[in-house]
Amino acid sequence: MYKNYLKRVFDLCLVILTLPLSIIILIIIGPLIYFQDNGPIFYNALRLGKNGKVFKMYKFRSMKVDAPDVRNRDGSTYNSEEDPRLTKLGKFIRKTSLDEVPQLLNILKGDMSIVGPRPDLPEHRTLYSLDDQKKLIIRPGLTGYNQAYFRNTVPWKERIKNDIYYIDHLSWWLDIKILIKTGQSVLKRNNVYVNIKEDSEKNNS
User: Which residue did the predictor score with more confidence, 204 or 190?
Assistant: First the structure.
């Protein structure tokens, strides 16, 4: 009942409650992003959604205009505090997770949920095992089990295992615990970046 119906109601209620604060954040952060280099405020990233549908995931832009695509060896996106592609403001909004605020619009549209597996790149589907496909049976989340407890410290394949664990144990109470843990992680700014630089490689495609 919760997974199929009440979870969506829960999402909409939380988004509506946080909408005033989100608008304030947009009014403050948006112009700062634009005036630092006259670039776009938002970064629209293609991601895998429920049932494998590809959608545009919205984020505040944290990187310089025309920054190159850099990946880890497992194909996941590279993430480091010393990443030269990040703007000064970008480092701040990454650390505080403010760059994720525009995904509330994705939740309103029905592309995402408040809590769920973080969405993968569309090309990652070709790397999924049969069991990994289970990740696509629910909407991806603004936060999730990985984001709350590990953030960026575990390899991509281990994240998928954690995502499937979440799906198998999905409940209202688990979502509440994940939201509380996410808040603690964001406030403490724990595990925001992967520190192993050598695991990255440039993807020129």
Answer: 190
Largest CA distance in the chain: 48
Residue for token pair 């403050």: 28
DSSP for 145-168 reads: HHHHHTTTSS-HHHHHHHHHHHHH
At residue 191, the pLDDT reads 54
Rounded mean pLDDT, 113-129: 94
Say how far apart CA 127 and CA 191 lie, in whole Å.
25
What is the total count of domains within the chain? 1
Pairing of strands 70-72, 200-202: antiparallel
In a domain, 158, yes or no: yes
Find out whether 112 and 141 touch, Cβ atoms under 8 Å.
yes
- Asked, for residue 204, whether it belongs to a domain, the answer is no
In a domain? residue 159:
yes
